[in-house]
Amino acid sequence: MADSSSVAKLASQRAVVIFAASNCFMCHAVTTLFSELGVSWTVYELDKDPKGKDMERALARMVGRNPPVPAVFIGGKLVGPTDQVMALHLAGKLVPLLRQAGALWL
């Protein structure tokens, strides 16, 4: 059974980690944004993972909503769902955060 500590462990293994679902449009929007920014990211598609339902429950508690995807972690820290990522991007704070985490070099 996955809990928030196992989710946090997965989230800390790369600079940008996205917990998603394969059929989630907002998940696709977030991964597209990161790709366009030149960010290398790792995605865990919960609907394709044997422990996905357990991770989804843990993420719902962490994010405070259900469904919790996409749940974006940068530098091992929960940034949040799409609206939080987009708000950071529009405020000019996403790129510096990505640089600080080592996800961008330019």
Automatic annotation (TrEMBL):
Q: What is this protein called?
A: Glutaredoxin domain-containing protein
Cell compartment(s), UniProt: Cytoplasm
Indicate the segments forming the Glutaredoxin domain, all copies: 16-79
Q: What gene name is given for the protein in this entry? A: ga08369
**Its family?**
Belongs to the glutaredoxin family. CC-type subfamily.
Q: Which PANTHER family match?
A: GLUTAREDOXIN
Q: What is the lineage of its organism?
A: Eukaryota, Viridiplantae, Streptophyta, Embryophyta, Tracheophyta
Tell me which UniProt keywords the record has, alphabetically.
Cytoplasm, Redox-active center
Q: Which domain of life is it from?
A: Eukaryota
Which InterPro entries does the UniProt entry name for this protein? GlrX-like_pln_2 (IPR011905), Glutaredoxin (IPR002109), Thioredoxin-like_sf (IPR036249)
Q: Name one Pfam family in it.
A: Glutaredoxin
Instruction: List the GO terms this entry assigns under cellular component, sorted alphabetically.
Output: cytoplasm
